[in-house]
Hints:
3% strand, mainly alpha, 18 helices
Amino acid sequence: MSNCISNYINKHGINRKKIAVSIIVSIALISLIQLVKGIGLRNPGFIEKYFSNGTYPITSTIQTSIANIFPFSLYEIVIVALIGFFIYRLVRLIRSFIKKDYVKELVNFVTLVILLVSIGLFLFQFLWSLNNYRYPLSVQVGLDVKETSVNELAQTYKALVLRANDARSALSSAQYTSSRKLKTHEILNTAWEGYPPLADKYPIFHSRRVRVKGLTFSRIQTISGYSGVYSFITGEPNINIEAPLTSMPHTACHEIAHQMGISFEDDANYAGFLACINHHDPLFVYSGYLSAITYTGNTLYRQSPELYNQISSLLSENIIKDQQENNAFWNQYKNDTVTKIADKINDNYLKSNNQPDGVQSYGKFVDLLIADYFEDNSI
């Protein structure tokens, strides 16, 4: 049997050594990933010390320093290049089937896919995703997050509504109605400026410049219902620049939080909120509060529509108009099938990376807001 296999391999010119090395490397990389993830599940302090506060700040600083040089998204170039390479190899495989000489090409194609996937997963974990096994942000900033009542949720929502009203009224017509292209450029280049005040208080944040990139293919994210993505391979926060202007600052700050090693979605939402309300630009302040009242309002509505309606009556006409425009934008391009697929992929990704609530983890942002409010009855 072994002689038959050997003869078959030799007949088709398959490089056995190359195939064996690729498989061994793939198995070694996947094994190492599982080993370190297992350690992280049992000992987050290990990940916190040796990865999140060890290697990650070094690798992410190098990545972001390079990405900051370019005004466009390197992430999109990488994605296009990978798709192009995959199509090229697929065409080669199809041609080999047509010529009926496909064994070598098929073996090489399958081996290459396995190797690239294992390398991709390894880079994903060791360039960013191991942060999913560190201590949560609530521990890092000293917030006491616990189970809360509907009344506590309502009090927090009311406080946020009043702050949102103040923030909206602070926006001058010039700040709000200036050239969208110009304002988008400002958001992308200044979003990081909300973090230095936080870095002075909490070691988990840093004050280094991080250039957020606007996605050229924003329409793809719009159709799938997403507003931003962090690229672990290039160290870039990327945002959908088709989204309403009032939502972009918080999204930009959310994605920068990921660059800082804050991987949980609820934590990134809260970090983005803190960065927004500490920003010098009134649009950022308003965007932070607008996002906060959206999440807390939706949560309160599910638990007590009566309390939600009572408190929401305090919202200014301008905020109500902004919320309506935001909903109209997403509904205009919404594709239920694409959104469900995107949500399913994201849900599985989150659950496989120590976020068991999946896409529902975004909503846990509200728990952090409540804890923040009841820490000193202000937010």
